[in-house]
Amino acid sequence: MVSKLTKRARIALLSGLTLSATLLSPVALAELTGEVAATNDYRFRGVSQTAGDFAIQAGVDWSHDSGFFVGAWASNVDFDEEGYNGPDVELDIYAGYYGEINDDASYDVTLYRYNYIGSGGSDLGYFEITAGIDFVGFRAAYWYTNDYGGAGDDLHYAELNYGWEFAENWSLDLHYGYNFGDGIDDGEGFDSYSDYSVGVSTEVGGVSISAAYLMSDMSDDYIVDDGVWRNDDTFLVSVSYGF
């Protein structure tokens, strides 16, 4: 989400400058970046947000050498069901802090606000906070909200990811996530599930391309293989361009 601190920023912090002095200094550097992407399905923790259809997504991120960053990200969504005409757009706004532990490890803390635009969308928005750590190719993160989907229910998500460059400009991408909490409790024994994926990614001419196979441990009774909230195993392809 946010790039590593530059060498100049690290030297400034090690030289004893206070955080406020770094923020106010006219020579402090900031960076504005963005990305546009297309994918054959927008999956959020294993569950489709576009009823299994394509998604166009875009984001912008402003990061400061002090470690603070803010940004916004948007995607089309499709939650329409019989008797319910849902929102058409998800707009996420976030702010956080990034820091380096050493040359091999870093951490970040981020607060998100998920907003949904369109019919019925105002009732679905909620805040979520996450904390993560990166270390030599691994990333572990924990997410929490006490108002999932605007319904006042808590939801937890823990994830572990690993990226390995097995050839020049090619990466093997592994993911495991565990969802649990009242937000997905159906009152009949289903209150948690795991999602995981295996994929590869590369970059060609400034365009990032990724392909992954997504799976979960949900039993057949809870698998949706078509339409809204689709959560069956699937092959996902994404193409993005950063600027």
From TrEMBL:
Pfam families found in the cross-reference section: Gcw_chp
Superkingdom assignment: Bacteria
Keywords recorded for this protein, A-Z: Signal
Keyword Signal included in the entry's annotation: yes
InterPro entries: CHP02001
Endpoints of the signal sequence: 1-30
Listed NCBIfam families: gcw_chp
Protein name: Porin
Organism: Shewanella aestuarii
